[in-house]
Design brief:
The chain is of the alpha+beta class and about 260 residues long. The chain is about 20% helix and about 30% strand. A hairpin with a 4-residue loop joins strand 12 and strand 13. It is elongated and about 100 Å long.
């Protein structure tokens, strides 16, 4: 009986859906996290009667075919790249992006990672790094005798060095944006990688070419809405239960058939 296998694909798809929702909820306090959404496609159909097939010598035809589907599959889990809320942290090296851009991070293997997490630190050499200790690209080094750091909306980084009253420019933050942000590959550690689907990174200074501007002393929170996630979780649970009932109903039908004799 095909219903058993069709319903099993529905249970499998909803199980994957719950996994995606649980990951969103687990990361609802992760800086710069972008929520995912499970998307589904129906599987192949068995065509018993093809629509438009001829039914008589006078040219009459079947107005609608008879097709039996074979279930559903999870086809993708795109990220929703909407802006998350920004919270004040009062840390001078915390920077939030207000726009579509990504910070660039130099990875140990030579590749460039992209992130919305602007919770930066200084390593022992004074280089600006992310939470994993990977340097920000382009590199910025803050002098050891700097009394404070100022980051302007256009990414200009200035430091008050020694007893100088006026700040000294020590670097320029840059941002990257992509034609298809959903095509970025997640690698964990709040980092994404460029792919053929995302298109090449388009690098420019903040406040130019649609990258967005920067907010010092702020961090971007996850764009996860807890109420929406719980509603999606309940809907997925109910869909899973209904598929389980289909399997139970199909089993009862098979039992009834086997007892006919």
């Amino acid at each position: 009986m095909k219903a058993l296998y069709i319903a099993s694909t529905g249970m499998g798809a909803q199980e994957r859906n719950v996994e995606v929702i649980s990951n969103n909820i687990a990361n609802m306090r992760t800086t710069g996290y972008k929520r995912q959404r499970a998307e589904f496609q129906d599987l192949l159909y068995q065509q018993i009667t093809r629509a438009g097939s001829q039914t008589s010598d006078q040219g009459t035809m079947v107005p609608a075919g008879l097709e039996i589907g074979s279930g559903v599959r999870t086809v993708s889990t795109p990220r929703i790249m909407s802006q998350g809320s920004v919270n004040m942290t009062e840390r001078e090296l915390d920077v939030a992006i207000r726009g579509e851009g990504f910070f660039m991070i130099q990875l140990p293997d030579g590749r460039t990672g992209y992130t919305r997490d602007g919770s930066f630190e200084r390593n022992p050499e004074g280089t600006l790094v992310n939470s994993s200790g990977y340097p920000v690209d382009p590199g910025i080094t803050i002098p050891g005798n700097a009394r404070g750091v100022s980051i302007s909306p256009d990414g200009t980084v200035e430091a008050y060095i020694g007893t100088d009253a006026a700040p000294t420019q020590i670097g320029q933050l840059q941002l990257a944006r992509f034609v298809n942000k959903s095509g970025l590959e997640s690698m964990g550690d709040n980092l994404f990688l460029e792919t053929a689907a995302s298109g090449p990174a388009q690098v420019s200074v903040p406040n130019a070419d649609g990258t967005g501007d920067l907010l010092q002393n702020y961090l971007e929170m996850a764009n996860v809405n807890s109420v929406t996630e719980i509603a999606d979780l309940i809907a997925a649970q109910r869909a899973y239960e209904m598929n389980a009932r289909v399997i139970s109903g199909a089993d009862q039908m098979m039992q009834a058939t086997s007892q006919l004799s």
